[in-house]
Fold each of these.
Amino acid sequence: MHRARETLLESELFGHVKGAFTGAVRDREGRFEAADGGTMFLDEIGEIPSPTQVKLLRFLQHKEFERVGETTTSKVDVRVIAATNRDLQAAVNAGAFREDLFYRLNAVRIKLPPLRERQEDIPLLAQHFLNKLGGTQDVAPQVMSALQAYTWKGNVRELENVIERALILSHGETIQMYHLPEEFQTLTEPAQRPMSLEEIEQQHIIKVLRVAKDLDEAAMLLGIDPATLWRKRKKYSL
C-alpha cells in the first residue's frame, strides 16, 4: 500500500509511461515536465516518503528525472519553492528527512510565524476573505477583538473558514459574535483575560526561538536541556 502511494506521488511529479503500474493506460507527463521554464510549488514537503526524497534530490541537483516505468532521462529547467509546517531540522535529526535534501531545499528560507503571533494581520486577512467570498458586511468591533484573541491552530485556513461560516449565517449588514463558532463566545474581552502559566511559558519560548540562532542556543537561553525544549515545542505545537 505504501509503495502504491509512493508510485502515485512519483507519477504526479515526474510522470509515467503506459503500463508502468496498474491504471497507467497511457503516457502522462508529470508536474515538473509541465512546469519547464517556470516555478513549481511543493506543499507539505516534510511528508514526502524516503524513496521519493531520493528522486527529488537528484532532480534538484541535476534537473534530470525519469518517468515512472521509463529508463530515458529527461531534463527541464524548473525553480522549486517548498513549504512545510514541520520542523525539518528536527526531522533530519530523527532520520525522517534526508539531510542532503534539506540543505538543497534550504537555500533561501522564509519563516512565516503562525497566525496567533501576527494579530495585526488578522483584520487585513479577514477583510480579504470577506472580499474574496463576496461579502459586503461590516465586522463588529467585538468580533474583531475575538478574532485577534483566538489561538488559530488551523492558521489562515481556519480564519477563512470562520469568515465563510459567518457570511453564511449573517443576513444583516454586520457580522456579530453569534455568527462565530461556539469557541469564540468566551473571547469577548480578550485584552483583560489574564494569561495562564502555560500561556506565559509558551509566549516566552516563542520569543526565545525567534532570537536564537538554533535550537541548542534556545535551550541554553531558556536554561533547559534540548530534550526538554523538544518536548515543550511538541506540547505547544511550536
Note: The mean pLDDT is 88.
Amino acid sequence: MHIIDENTGEIVNEFNQGDRIVRKSSVEYLSDTQVWKIEHFYKGNIGEVRKQLESLSVYEKAFLFTIATYIGYEDCCVKYDNGHCIGFDDLVKLSKMSRAKTQETINLLIKKDILYKGRNSKGLQYFVNPWLFCKGTRIQNVLKTMFKNYRIKVMGNKKWGDL
C-alpha cells in the first residue's frame, strides 16, 4: 500500500507491516487529552454494580466498597499495593466492623458470587468478582472458573460459566 501526496498525486512512501492509518479527527481528539497512569484507578462495571446494590445490605455495600480499592491487577485478589494478600484480620480492621459481622458479610458476599475465598501456601486469599470491579486491562482466565455460577445481571442473569 502506498502513501500518496494529496497535492501532487505522487507516491511519497509505503506502508510497512504494522503501520496503521490514524484519522485526523483522532489526532485532534488525542491532542486535547492527556494520558493518565491508570495504575491508581480501579474500574467498576456501573450497570452490574447498580443492579447488585439493590440486593446488598448496608454492611455488604460498605465492605465491598472498602475492599474495592485493594483489588490486584489481573487477578482481582484483595491485596496491599506491595502485593501481600489481605487476610481476615486486616479485613476486620479495614472494614471497621466486628469480627462476627465481617465474617457474616464475607460469607454473604461469597454466597452471592461477589467474593471468592481461596487458599494458597501462605494462607487465605479473597478475590472480587471482576464483573463488578477490576484493575488493569486484562483478567486471568481462572477468575471465570472461580465465579462460574455468578449470574450476570446486565445479561439477563446468564451464568458466567455458560458464556
Note: The first strand starts at residue 2 and ends at 4.
